[in-house]
Amino acid sequence: MGSVSKRRAIQTARARTCSNSTSFLLTMPGFLDDSNFGALSCKLITVCPNNVHLGKSLPTINANITLFDETTGILKAIISGNEITKWRTAAASVVATKYLTAKKGLRVLAILGAGAQGEIHAVAFQHFFNFEEANSKRLIRIWNHNTLKAEKLVSKLNQLYCGTVFKCFKSNEMCVKEADVIITATFASEPIVQLKWLKKGTHINAVGAGLTHYSELSESIYLASDVYIDYSEGAEAELTGLKELGVEFKGEIGTLVSGGVSPSSVNQITVFQSLGMAVEDCAMARMVYDLYKKQYRNV
Ligand SMILES: NC(=O)C1=CN([C@@H]2O[C@H](COP(=O)(O)OP(=O)(O)OC[C@H]3O[C@@H](n4cnc5c(N)ncnc54)[C@H](OP(=O)(O)O)[C@@H]3O)[C@@H](O)[C@H]2O)C=CC1
Ligand SMILES: O=C(O)C1=NCCCC1
User: Fold this and answer.
1) For ligand 1, is residue 29 a contact (CB within 6 Å)?
2) pLDDT at position 100
3) Of 60, 138, 260, 271, which cross-links 255 as Cys (Cβ 3.0–4.6 Å)?
4) Residue 162 has pLDDT above 70, yes or no
5) Domain 103-277 adopts which CATH fold?
6) Closest residue (by CA) to atom 2 of ligand 2?
């Protein structure tokens, strides 16, 4: 994120190719200029929300990353990108939350969405933060529009992470009530969070992005919030609806991290509108490639 804001990373606005009314392919080229973490890569990722209805347990998001030699341009590897996409997206939300809640006490975390991103965010946030509701152990709330899916995820997480209690909520409104941090990670095309449900100073990581784009939060939330983004070029290209609404972006998270933008006041509602960055995939692909070489080829 810091490299992006210091312009040591190149990622042109990604291309979006629709294959039908709900599905699309994103082409995400990126170059990160760093001898330890840098790489030249292109992630190809399909987003097919209807896969859930095919009954074959197919992921809705499927990614592969092509990694190239920066000097010769020769293809070095094609790396499966599903796990990378999950982890790097949750990592970006962790960083945004760390910097946007630095002066706030965090008690209540609400996650809306119990799919791949909902799950990885729960895992990452229980690891990095200490959400603790009054008179309770560490607690993370989870809601999904299909409650059964949230119940299954909650039961799985409660078995895996005994230091935290995961609790299923049937109502999205009750789930976000009094929340200090909210994560939205769904394909909702209509808002699932309303401004009047939020308390002062709430921070929201808005992760979901369907074809009708960035629609999980009500317009009034965007208008009332300080909205941060991951990269300006992507935001200009993809968040046209928010721009037309009159939303001014406060800045990139990378700029906030390096002190180039002053943080919002504690009572201000903040939104990190996560688009996803090609260079995050680039850095992860390089790391995976280096580990593979070390472990299996001893180089
Ligand atoms: N910002 C970024 O970098 C990234 C963003 N994403 C976005 O994050 C979102 C989640 O992705 P992922 O977890 O991989 O996908 P999954 O298919 O694994 O999960 C999607 C979740 O959204 C729920 N959902 C589907 N339709 C609706 C609806 N109309 N209203 C409310 N909830 C709904 C699903 O519930 P059910 O299955 O019960 O219908 C499920 O819990 C997507 O929008 C995706 O595009 C993904 C990767 C990176
Ligand atoms: O950056 C990504 O990866 C994605 N962004 C939005 C849609 C799904 C994948």
Assistant:
1) no
2) 97
3) 260
4) yes
5) Rossmann fold (3.40.50)
6) 276
